[in-house]
Amino acid sequence: MTTPVIGDGPGTTDAASIVAEGRHRRRRRAVTVTAVLAALIVVAVVVSLSLGATGLGLGDALAALVGRGDRLSDFVVFRLRLPRATTAVLAGAAFGLAGSLFQSTLRNPLASPDILGVTAGASFAAVFATLILRVDGPGIAVAAFAGALIVAALMWALAWRGGLVGYRFVLIGVALAALVQAALGYLITRADVRDASRALVWTVGGIGDTSWPAIGVVGVAILGLLIVVAGVSRRMPVLQLDDDSARSLGVDAGRARAGVIVLGVALVAAGTALAGPVAFVALVSAPIARSLVRGGASALAASALVGSLVVLVADLVGQYALPGGISVPVGIVTGLIGAPYLLWLIATGNRKGSDG
Amino acid sequence: MSVSTTAATAGVVSGVRRRRMVRSAWLVASVLLLVVVVVASLTIGARPLSFDEVLGALFAPRHGDVDQVVVRELRVPRTVIGLMAGAALALVGAILQGVTRNPIADPGLLGINAGASFAVVLAISVFGIVSPSGFVWFAFAGAALAAVIVFVVGSRGRDGSTPVKLALTGAAVTAAFTPLITIVLLSSLDTLNQFRFWSVGALVGRPLDTAGAVWPFLVVGILLAAILARRLNLLALGDDVARGLGDRPAVTHALAAVAVVVLAGTATALAGPIALIGLVVPHVARRITGPDYRWVLAFCLTLGPVLLLSADVIGRVVVAPAELEAGIVSAFIGAPLLIAIIRRAKLAGV
């Protein structure tokens, strides 16, 4: 190996120790990045608790958090702002992690949650639950979760024919999305216009009116999934290889990949159930995390944290930072930032525009 | 030797001739089907009418006859708009699929409908326009804007416009317009109320003067499609081969871009954003006639309206006396059709 020594060690020309050194350094970097991201999330949560119509200082918010607040700040923090911040953290983590799982296993930018049918299914089920079944809170979350999984499963069943081929999967997704969109259009045109407006907020991802029961139901699901993903994450790098190389390492790549995608779909479904389909979080979190961690193939933990941070900050922007004092659902902020970013990526992009 | 060559040539010639005859027969059949669907569209509805009554309404108007008013004021406009929008949608789908060499190209997927929708939202909210015939020019402008973005962004970079890149660009353009649309809709219930009925895509409630305003565009679009047919055949072989055969792919791309804007603008202006017709009809046409774009485009001209008008007629029947919009029904017909096509096709070729 004639690789130049990049390191400050005293002339470690031995290849094995270079690799070990590099690995060690990457791990250190990953730990640092993770710690910094976690700290930023805490800061963003505290800031979000202190901002709003009822002016609480940072001190009041912190006091309420540690159980020393007065009744007003307790109410504002625990009933209004903490659920919202918790939703942002949980949903963001789910989206970020799911994006990372999809991108590292499918290696296909079109395999975003929208194309996977999850978003459409969740939106339709949530709107159906709101407008027809007239449930709210946890009911909507459960309906959305079920809808997402049903449509995803349907897609899977229709696209499967002795294996899963990317293009067929995408095409089936397109067909089902159009179908669901039409059904959604039917519901929206038949509803009272005020209800339609509320349903519309849901379909773009708004975390404004979550409640503890909904967070409880979905949060448990998300935490469970996080633990499962952590358990399988050691085997993830193998899936970056092509199927034959993976097989030579004793991994049935097809099956493993399917398992990872199921996890990703479940995560997106849970995140969507909680916050609605917040655009682009799944798409952008993983690339950001990868570039921060540098080299870490899938950077799962960092992706989840980046997801949380993105949703938190975007929600703060949507609530407080827009001109004219208007406030918009978080999904609109992420869409307004994410879409031009994606266009820029494509325009300046790499050879095939396929790693966007 | 020369005898056998002649015989072989004759065999090939007769094979070509037979193929052409079969295709022509199919084309005639599709025209007949279109006639049947048009008649159905004129006669079927909440107030069922006989064919004679329809003819009477058209050629022997009686004053104050409610049935005749139904034909002239409701049935004829939606039939005409269905014919025009269906043809435009199918053609635009075929041209997009040809020029991008991408089987899933469609004005909806490439962001063009989103652009048109955004412009219509602006028309309602900023300019206070309330009638669909006033939406026309906005729909056009929005469709054109989105198409330009998609083509410019999607064709940058070293490889030019790869199918994946175009599809991705379309998704990004849709994603860019959606939050803008939603902000406007959330800030005004009136706008939402107008927009939601436009955005499902329907043939009903669209006045005939809309058709009167946009028909020249449809004509231009059809002419462009006719010019493009041979060029798309060459392009299907790849840019390099096309160039080698004396074609200039850049010219084809430019003509196609104009045709797409004109046709997509026409369709959206007439009926609103309608999904899947542009995607499905070219696939059906290809199954009937093979990959030759001269025939595919011809079949689009008949099968597009057949599908859209059938959807409209079915929408009048299934939930009678209420109605389902053509955009909703066509998605429910188109999606299973598309899924069937996908599942049967060999994947490399789709």
TrEMBL record, chain A:
Pfam families for this protein: FecCD
One GO CC term, this protein: plasma membrane
Membrane spanning stretches: 35-65, 85-103, 115-133, 140-159, 165-189, 210-232, 258-284, 296-314, 326-347
Example GO biological process: siderophore-iron import into cell
Swiss-Prot/TrEMBL keywords: Cell membrane, Membrane, Transmembrane, Transmembrane helix, Transport
Family indicated by similarity: Belongs to the binding-protein-dependent transport system permease family. FecCD subfamily.
MF terms in GO: transmembrane transporter activity
The protein, known as: Iron ABC transporter permease
Membrane topology: Multi-pass membrane protein
Subcellular location per the Swiss-Prot or TrEMBL entry: Cell membrane
